[in-house]
Structures are given as C-alpha cells and as structure tokens.
C-alpha cells in the first residue's frame, strides 16, 4: 500500500511524536510511506525529527509554507496537490486541522481516499475544514476524543495512539540538576508539551506557592510560539519553575528525573504520557477523563480535583517511591502493552483497507 501522511509542522508535540512511531512501523510492513510537512521549518528540532524519520525509511517532503502569507498558502496548496497527484497514493492520512484542508484539496477530483485522524478532545475545525472534510472517514485517537467529538461522521473508528519504545526510549542520561546548577538532592519534576493554554502550565504557580519546597523543581520541556501560547515571562519570579523550551532529549531527561507531571485541562490520548510510561518514570496526571482512562498503570497517580493541595499530595506520594525506572517499567510491561505502536499500526492498515474496499 502507498500511504501519504500530511501534518502541519515538525516542531514537536503529540502529533509529531506519534507519527515518528507510526510511520516507520507502517513502512516496516512493506508499505511505501511518505510524509508531507506543510510549514517551513523554524526550529532545529524539525530537522532532528526529519532525520529520525529518514533513518527509518520515511520520505519527508517539505512544502515550506510561510506563516500569515496568503500567497504562500495558495502556492503550497497547489504544490501539495501536484505532489499527491504524482505519487498517486492509496491513502492520504491527515493529522491536524490545517492538514485536513490540504489533504481534501489534494485529493479532490482524484480516485484517492483521504482519512482524517482526530488527535485532540475535542479537535475544533475552522469553517474550511468543516466544509471540505465533513464526510471524510475519521480515526479518533482515544475513546475520550470520540466522546467529545465536534464532527458529524458517517464512517469512524477509534484507534488508541501508540508509541515505538525502541525509537522513543534511550539509555542516555541528561541530568537537569547539572544543567540548572541545582543540588544533587533536589527533585526534578518534568512536564512535556508546547506552551499551549490546554497544558495548563500556569497552574504550576499555584502548586509552587502552596508546596513551599524549593528543593522540588518543575521543568517544562516545550516551546512557546507567540500568539495563543503561554508567555514564559510569567514564571520569571519562580526560582523552581524552569522553562526549557523545545527539547530533543526528553527521554534522556526523564531517565534522570524523579517525576512526570501533567496539569492538562484536556487531551486526546497524550503521547507524552505514554512516553513517560515506557520510560519508567513515576507519573502524576491531571484528573481529566483522557488521563483517568489510561491511569491503570503502576506508579501513576490522579489527584481528586484541580486544587493545588490535591496535586501536591500525589506528588509527594509519587516521590516517595525509591524504585529505579527499570524496576517500575518491569512492573508496567503488561499494563502498557496495549500502547505499543505495533497494535496501533495494524488497526490503521485494517481501517485503510476497509475504506478502500468499501
């Protein structure tokens, strides 16, 4: 099968890290897999992800769309349509709101099936996506994403996200205590994801004010990309909250950290959490349905509500565990098998075939 995936960017995030696992797995099953990236690269991390994909037999094609440039928008839509026409894939699978529009315009008038993956809960579409994609078959990344959907769909399935632990995990260690000049006894709490409001990083200030423990350091691995993102300046007065920007060494950081924390208000099926599971790090996850549904895993804690004290109670419980990450991972193995990318990739191909043969 010939499969083209389209995504908005490779800046880093749940969608990008999911594709980093899914595409090589699809390619390993004798499928020809290509990825079209819409936006022009603006971070070195984009090159890092492209290199990893290329090393795993994925052809990456850049459209180099410029932000807030209508001419570039039209030019790259035409370019995308031309590329898809030349490749003539069996399936175009799109990931992210803008990519759905590009995909729909690229297959219009052609005998090529487009399938849309919904990665958020809910995923809010602009009018253009609603108009062009309203009758497209959908894959929801979790039951929560399906239950909170805003789309009306005639053909849909739920396929839980998965990860390839061989790609995600590393044996390397990156100790933030050394990078940040902290004491060896200080505790490192890692948060992962771009500085979007849904990640609720501002809530960290309430936790820091309440916990009053300067030996616990909250380290955010995620970029802030301007309008619509949380401004890192609001954390300047907090000496134990560190905004590290977009990082390509998250697994190495988690290997030497003490705890993974998510304060998110909503998610699809969070890839960063699955990566933390496979890295064997203790986890405290916000009390949202998307986390609760995947929380039956060893050394994972869910606060009873969104009050800082509830989070702090769970943080101290998780930090009291003295097991190594390897020991924790060994106890999680059977519990997290369902999040292996192998299962996800099989279900994706089965759904592709269903649509092609329907």
Describe it.
The model has no long low-confidence stretch (mean pLDDT 94). The chain folds into two domains: 181 residues, Rossmann fold, CATH 3.40.50.2000; 172 residues, Rossmann fold (3-Layer(aba) Sandwich). The chain is 41% helix and 18% strand. With 358 residues, the protein is α/β, with parallel strands linked by helices. The strands form two sheets. Strands 3-2-1-4-5-6-7 form a seven-stranded parallel β-sheet, sandwiched between helices. It has a six-stranded parallel β-sheet with strand order 10-9-8-11-12-13, sandwiched between helices. GO terms for molecular function: glycosyltransferase activity.
Give the SSE layout.
Layout: E1 2-7, H1 14-27, E2 32-39, H2 44-55, E3 59-65, H3 70-87, E4 91-95, H4 97-107, E5 113-118, H5 127-133, E6 138-140, H6 143-147, E7 156-158, H7 165-168, H8 176-179, E8 187-192, H9 203-211, E9 216-221, E10 241-245, H10 250-256, E11 259-262, H11 271-279, E12 283-285, H12 289-292, E13 300-301, H13 308-319, H14 325-336, H15 341-357
Helix pairs in contact: 1-15, 3-4, 4-5, 9-13, 11-14
Q: Tell me the CATH superfamily of the largest domain.
A: Glycogen Phosphorylase B
Q: How many helices?
A: 15
Proportion of strand residues: 15-25%
Quote the distance from N terminus to C terminus: 16 Å
- Order of helix and strand elements from N to C terminus: EHEHEHEHEHEHEHHEHEEHEHEHEHHH
Helix- and strand-based class?
alpha/beta
Organism: Xylanibacter rarus
InterPro entries: Glyco_trans_1, Glyco_trans_4-like_N, Glycosyltransferase_grp1
GO molecular function, one term: glycosyltransferase activity
Protein name: Glycosyltransferase
């Amino acid at each position: 099968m010939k499969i083209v995936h389209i995504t908005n960017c490779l800046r880093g995030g749940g969608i990008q890290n999911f594709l980093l696992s899914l595409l090589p797995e699809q390619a390993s099953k004798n499928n020809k897999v290509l990825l079209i990236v819409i936006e022009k690269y603006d971070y070195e991390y984009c090159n890092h992800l492209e290199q990893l994909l290329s090393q795993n037999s994925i052809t990456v094609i850049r459209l180099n769309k410029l932000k807030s440039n209508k001419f570039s928008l039209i030019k790259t839509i035409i370019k995308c349509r031309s590329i898809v026409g030349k490749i003539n894939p069996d399936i175009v699978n799109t990931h992210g709101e803008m990519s759905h529009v590009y995909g729909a315009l690229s297959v219009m008038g052609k005998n090529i099936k487009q399938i849309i993956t919904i990665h958020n809960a809910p995923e809010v579409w602009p009018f253009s996506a609603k108009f062009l994609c309203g009758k497209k078959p959908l894959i929801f990344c979790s039951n929560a994403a399906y239950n909170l959907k805003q789309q009306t769909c005639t053909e849909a399935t739920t396929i839980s996200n998965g990860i390839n632990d061989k790609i995600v995990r590393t044996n390397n260690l990156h100790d933030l205590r050394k990078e940040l000049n902290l004491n060896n006894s200080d505790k490192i709490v890692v948060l992962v994801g771009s500085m979007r409001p849904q990640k609720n990083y501002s809530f960290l200030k309430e936790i820091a004010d309440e916990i009053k423990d300067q030996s616990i350091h909250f380290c955010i691995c995620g970029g802030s990309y301007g309008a619509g993102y949380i401004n890192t300046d609001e954390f300047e007065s907090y000496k134990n909250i560190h905004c590290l920007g977009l990082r390509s060494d998250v697994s190495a950081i988690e290997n030497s950290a003490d705890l993974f924390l998510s304060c998110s208000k909503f998610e699809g099926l969070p890839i960063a959490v699955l990566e933390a599971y496979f890295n064997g790090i203790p986890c405290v996850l916000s009390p949202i349905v998307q986390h609760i549904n995947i929380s039956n895993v060893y050394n994972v804690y869910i606060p009873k509500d969104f009050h800082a004290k509830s989070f702090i109670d769970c943080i101290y419980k998780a930090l009291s565990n003295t097991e190594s990450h390897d020991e924790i991972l060994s106890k999680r193995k059977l519990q997290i098998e369902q999040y292996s990318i192998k299962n996800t990739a099989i279900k994706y191909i089965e759904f592709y075939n269903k649509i092609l043969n329907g």
